[in-house]
């Protein structure tokens, strides 16, 4: 009897853990579906101070979750939550800092 109860308890535990993992994966997928990453060209970004200024200010804009500044190529990759901001608001934030931006088109096929 004890062995039977033990196996039933183990099976229930395994099923519960599998269900929790599936729930966590589903939640992550929904969270990622709300994010978008864009790459912007910033032609007037020319020095480390420009890079620091962008990193310091743009990363704190509402909805921005990640920011990668590439000074050598004069580009910035911005990951943001689509329900909190959009491309126009992000470009406006750059303009407030004195930088014009253009969207870098993805050339991969």
The main β sheet shows up as: 4 strands, antiparallel
Helix share of residues?
40-55%
* Beta-strand percentage range: 15-25%
Distance between the termini: 63 Å
**Helix-and-strand structural type:** alpha+beta
Any low-confidence stretches, pLDDT <50, length ≥5? none
Q: How many individual helices?
A: 3
Rg measurement, Å? 22 Å
Strand order of the largest sheet: 2-3-1-4
Number of strand elements: 4
What's the rounded overall pLDDT mean? 86
Overall geometry: rod-shaped
The SSE order reads HEHEEHE
How would you characterize this protein structure?
- The chain is of the alpha+beta class and 109 residues long.
- The protein has three helices and four strands; from the N terminus they run H-E-H-E-E-H-E.
- The chain has helices at residues 2-33, 48-58, 87-96, and strands at 35-41, 64-70, 75-81, 102-103.
- Strands 2-3-1-4 form a four-stranded antiparallel β-sheet.
- A hairpin with a 4-residue loop joins strand 2 (64-70) and strand 3.
- The radius of gyration is 22 Å and the shape is rod-shaped.
- 13% of the residues are buried.
């Amino acid at each position: 009897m004890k062995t039977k109860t033990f196996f039933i308890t183990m099976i229930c535990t395994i099923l519960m853990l599998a269900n929790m993992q599936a729930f966590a994966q589903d939640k992550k997928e929904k969270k990622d579906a709300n994010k978008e990453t864009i790459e912007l060209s910033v032609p007037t970004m020319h020095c480390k101070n420009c890079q620091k200024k962008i990193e310091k200010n743009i990363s704190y804009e509402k909805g921005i979750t990640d920011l990668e500044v590439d000074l050598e190529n004069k580009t910035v990759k911005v990951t943001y939550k689509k329900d909190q901001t959009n491309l126009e608001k992000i470009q406006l934030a750059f303009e407030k800092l004195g930088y014009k931006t253009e969207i870098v088109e993805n050339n991969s096929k």
